[in-house]
C-alpha cells in the first residue's frame, strides 16, 4: 500500500514514500545548523523552517520514489509528541493532501515510530521483545507483543538520555547536538582516568530512568575544574565525555537486562537518535555475546527523525484498523497508550 509519510515534530522536515517495509524514498532536511548557536532547538526557528521547506521536501520525495500523488493510498503524519508549531505544519500538509487526493489520513505517535523503526531493516525483529526508545525527548522501555501492542515498562523521571548528552555538551562548550560529538570524543579517552559519575537506578526493581543526577555531577565537576584553572584541556574534556557516557549507558543497559529478565524476553529492539551511539551498540553487542539475547538496532538513517518510520507504522496500524480523520490535531504531549 503506497504510503506518504510526513514528519515535522522537531528540527527535521521529512517526507517519505513507503510500501510496507520497503522504502522508495526518505528525504530529510534538518534545521539543526540554525539551532547550534543557541545550544538547543528553538521552537519558532524550527517551525519556520518546516513551513519554508516542507513542499520542497515533498516534491523531492515523490520525484526520487518515481511516484506521484495519485499513486498514494494512505497519508501518515506525526501528530505528537513534539513542538506544537512544528507538528502543525506537517499535519496541515498531510490533511491537504489527504483531502485533495481523497485518500485516508492516519496520525502516528512519534515515540512508537522510533520503537518500531527496526522493522525497516532487512532482517526485522520477531515478537515479543523489550523495546528501548532513546531520543532527545524520550527514554522509555516497552514490552511489545505485536506492532502497536505495547506496554510501557518504565520511562525517565527527568531528562531524556539524549537531552542529557545535549546538556553535557553545552556545559563543555561542544555545541548542539551533543550526542555525536560526545560519542566521538569519548572514544579518544580509552577509558583512562575515568571519573566516577553517579549511575542512577531509582531503587531495586524500578524500570524507570533518571539522568539529571549525572548531568548535574558533570556540571559541578566542570565548575570546580574551571575555578581552579582557566579552561579545560582536550584530555580533560575527553575523560569527562567518556565517564559521562559510561555512567549514562550503563544505567540504560542494566535496565534493559532487568526488563528482559522480568518479561522473559530474548529479544531487544532499540530506536531513537541515541540508538546511533557507537558505545551503546558496543555494549549491546557485548550483552548479546554472553547471553542468548538477540539485539536489533535501526540503520543509522532511521535512528534520527525520519518520515519512513512514520509511513511504516502508519500503514501497519491502518491495516490493523486504526483511523484518523481531518479533525486530527497536533498533540505536543501525546502519551503512550498501553495496548495489549
Ligand atoms: O530521535 P531524535 O533524532 O529526535 C528526538 O525525537 O528527540 O534524537 C535526537 C537526539 C539528540 O539528543 C542527539 O544528541 C542524540 O539523539 N544523538 C546521539 C547520537 N546521535 C544523536 N546521542 C548519542 N550518541 C550519538 N551518536
Ligand atoms: Zn525522534
Question: Can you describe this structure in just a few lines?
Answer:
By secondary structure, the protein is an alpha/beta fold.
* Uncertain residue segments: none
CATH architecture of the largest domain: 2-Layer Sandwich
Total helices: the number is 10
Task: Give the count of structural domains.
Answer: 2
Pairing-aware structural class of the strands and helices? alpha/beta
Largest sheet, spatial ordering of strands: 3-2-1-4-5
CATH class call of the largest domain: Alpha Beta
Task: Describe the model.
The chain has two domains: 2-115 and 302-319, ATPase, nucleotide binding domain (Nucleotidyltransferase, domain 5, 2-Layer Sandwich), CATH 3.30.420; 123-297, ATPase, nucleotide binding domain (Nucleotidyltransferase, domain 5). It has ten helices and ten strands. It has helices spanning 32-35, 43-65, 84-101, 110-115, 161-171, 178-187, 212-228, 234-263, 278-289, 308-319; strands spanning 2-7, 12-19, 22-30, 74-80, 105-109, 129-134, 139-146, 149-155, 267-271, 294-296. A five-stranded mixed β-sheet has the order 3-2-1-4-5, sandwiched between helices. The protein has a five-stranded mixed β-sheet with strand order 8-7-6-9-10. It is globular. The relative contact order is 0.19. The site of 5'-O-[(R)-(carboxyoxy)(hydroxy)phosphoryl]adenosine has 20 residues, from helix 5 and helix 6.
Amino acid at each position: 500500500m503506497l504510503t506518504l509519510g510526513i514528519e515535522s515534530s522537531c528540527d527535521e522536515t521529512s517526507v517519505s514514500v513507503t510500501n510496507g517495509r520497503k522504502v522508495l524514498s526518505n528525504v530529510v532536511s534538518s534545521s539543526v545548523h540554525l539551532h547550534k548557536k543557541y545550544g538547543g532547538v528553538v521552537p519558532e526557528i524550527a517551525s519556520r523552517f518546516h513551513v519554508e521547506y516542507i513542499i520542497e521536501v515533498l516534491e523531492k520525495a515523490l520525484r526520487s520514489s518515481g511516484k506521484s500523488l495519485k499513486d498514494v493510498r494512505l497519508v501518515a503524519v506525526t501528530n505528537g509528541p513534539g513542538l506544537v508549531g512544528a507538528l502543525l505544519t506537517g499535519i496541515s500538509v498531510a490533511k491537504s493532501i489527504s483531502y485533495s487526493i481523497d485518500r485516508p489520513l492516519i496520525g502516528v505517535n512519534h515515540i512508537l515510530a522510533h520503537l518500531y523503526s527496526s522493522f525497516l531493516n532487512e532482517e526485522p525483529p520477531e515478537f515479543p521483545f523489550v523495546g528501548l526508545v532513546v531520543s532527545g525527548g524520550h527514554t522509555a522501555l516497552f514490552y511489545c507483543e505485536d506492532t502497536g501492542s505495547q506496554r510501557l515498562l518504565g520511562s525517565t523521571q527527568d531528562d531524556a538520555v539524549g537531552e542529557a548528552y545535549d546538556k553535557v555538551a553545552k556545559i563543555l562548550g561542544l555545541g548542539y547536538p551533543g550526542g555525536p560529538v560526545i560519542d566521538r570524543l569519548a572514544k579518544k579517552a580509552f577509558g583512562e582516568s575515568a571519573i566516577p559519575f553517579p549511575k542512577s537506578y531509582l531503587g531495586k526493581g524500578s524500570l524507570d530512568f533518571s539522568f539529571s543526577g549525572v548531568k548535574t555531577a558533570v556540571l559541578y565537576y566542570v565548575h570546580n575544574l574551571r575555578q581552579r584553572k582557566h579552561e579545560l584541556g582536550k584530555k580533560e574534556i575527553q575523560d569527562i565525555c567518556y565517564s559521562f557516557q559510561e555512567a549514562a549507558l550503563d544505567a540504560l543497559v542494566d535496565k534493559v537486562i532487568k526488563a528482559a529478565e522480568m518479561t522473559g524476553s530474548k529479544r531487544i529492539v532499540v530506536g531513537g537518535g541515541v540508538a546511533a551511539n557507537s558505545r551503546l551498540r558496543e555494549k549491546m553487542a557485548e550483552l548479546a555475546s554472553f547471553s542468548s539475547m538477540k539485539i536489533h538496532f535501526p540503520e543509522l538513517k532511521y535512528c534520527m527523525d525520519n518520515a519512513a518510520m512514520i509511513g511504516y507504522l502508519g500503514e501497519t496500524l491502518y491495516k490493523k484498523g486504526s483511523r484518523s480523520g481531518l479533525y486530527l490535531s497536533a498533540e505536543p504531549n501525546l502519551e503512550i497508550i498501553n495496548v495489549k
